[in-house]
Write a structure and sequence with these properties.
- With about 160 residues, this protein is of the alpha+beta class.
- The chain has a single domain (about 15-160), classed as Alpha-D-Glucose-1,6-Bisphosphate, Chain A, domain 4 (2-Layer Sandwich), CATH 3.30.530.20.
- About 25% of the residues lie in helices and about 40% in strands.
- It is built from three helices and nine strands.
- It has helices at about 20-30, 130-135, 140-160, and strands at about 10-15, 40-50, 55-60, 65-80, 80-85, 90, 95-100, 105-115, 115-125.
- Strands 1-9-8-5-4-3-2 form a seven-stranded antiparallel beta sheet.
- A hairpin with a 3-residue loop joins strand 4 and strand 5 (about 80-85).
- Helix 1 packs across helix 3 (about 140-160).
- The protein is globular and about 45 Å long.
Length: about 160
Amino acid sequence: MTATAQNGWAMSVTRHIAAPPHHVWHIMTARQAEWYCPLPWLAEVIFKDWRAGGRDAMLFRGPNGEEMPQEGLFLEVVPGVRWVSTDAFVRAADGNFMPTSPFMVGCWEIKAEGEGTLYTATARHWDEDAAKRHIDMGFEDGWGACADQLKTLCEAASGER
């Protein structure tokens, strides 16, 4: 997908996963630390409140000691279908939503396709500059690697059943 103003400066990756949607959803949510960050980086789940308005916090750790906090909130959670989150707001200790410097809105969704699942992850950016920064950060390779890691986990775990 080419990022344009008309599509919200969106970019996405899609994979077909040879596992049923309920299985893919379980891996996507319960084992997020295992696939959500491209190796050799690691993802640490700090807190997940899987509901609209709930906190979504992770920490990415690089191979050379780098740390990249990921703090935001869920805009929508439809179990077995999709979740949408953003870094435009965080939830303060008093429960209020606090604005931050926004970068993107992310959507991770699945749907049945044949005997498997179609997985699509989409990043929508505030403006062209943010989309270009994400491209320069390696969006296609990074999000593609995460999609491949998810696919591998789901298909391996599905074969164990």
